[in-house]
Amino acid sequence: MPTCVAVRHVAFEDLGLLGPLLAARGFDLRYVDAPIEPLDGSSLMAADLVVVLGGPIGAYEEDAYPFLVGELAAIEERLAARKPTLGICLGAQLMAKALGADVAPGPQKEIGYAPLAVTEEGRAAGLGAFSATPVLHWHGDNFALPAGATRLASTAACLNQAFAVGPTLLGLQFHIEVDPERIETWLVGHTVELGKAGLDPRNIRREAATVGKATAEQGRAFLARWLDGAMPL
């Protein structure tokens, strides 16, 4: 039975739609809550797949959140071995930082559903649908493109929305794993951030009801395709 370790930073930012997809493929799923469960290289290296999930802190805030030091070191060791790893939002930022790229606050927050500008390489990877189908954005930090990585998608406010290093390493700034029927957990969990950004949760709730199903369908298809390439049977 293949194993998947999901590195979680806040409870409601979980595997979402990716959980049932992995379970259907026979994965044994285990969460590691990074803020309270110490991470080291061996804890991530042993897994067949690692998914590093999102969260409301910065990948560069090691002084404020010291657990990030160990988490980054563990991610760096796994990435060096090119073992299948998916990073989502903060997870992608941590992957980029572990690969030597800068992570810093972006020019503005991107929160809500919006499409991507998908590169030729991104279309080849299966992201083309998201040039028309909106995805959920929820970030304020941006990352530089790591050396040796391929840019897959962008937006006006964020040049690097997705990157890949070979077939096994994938970083996604946006969220295609979120179940639109559980968007309320995000609206409650991030209520302070929404208030500071002057965003009305009712608008995001309407967006989820309108486009969330299509986003979820395309997200499942893309993630399944990536898994097929990263972990061929």
Structure description:
With 233 residues, this protein is α/β, with parallel strands linked by helices. It has a single domain (3-230), classed as Class I glutamine amidotransferase (GATase) domain (Rossmann fold, 3-Layer(aba) Sandwich), CATH 3.40.50. The protein has eight helices and ten strands. The chain has helices spanning 18-24, 41-45, 67-80, 90-98, 120-125, 183-189, 191-197, 201-230, and strands at residues 3-8, 28-33, 49-52, 85-88, 103-114, 117-118, 135-143, 150-155, 158-165, 169-172. The strands form two sheets. It has an eight-stranded mixed β-sheet, sandwiched between helices. Strands 5-7 form a two-stranded antiparallel sheet. Helix 3 (67-80) links the parallel strand 3 and strand 4 (85-88). The longest helix is centred in the last third of the chain and has 30 residues, at 201-230. It is globular and about 45 Å long. The protein starts with a strand and ends with a helix.
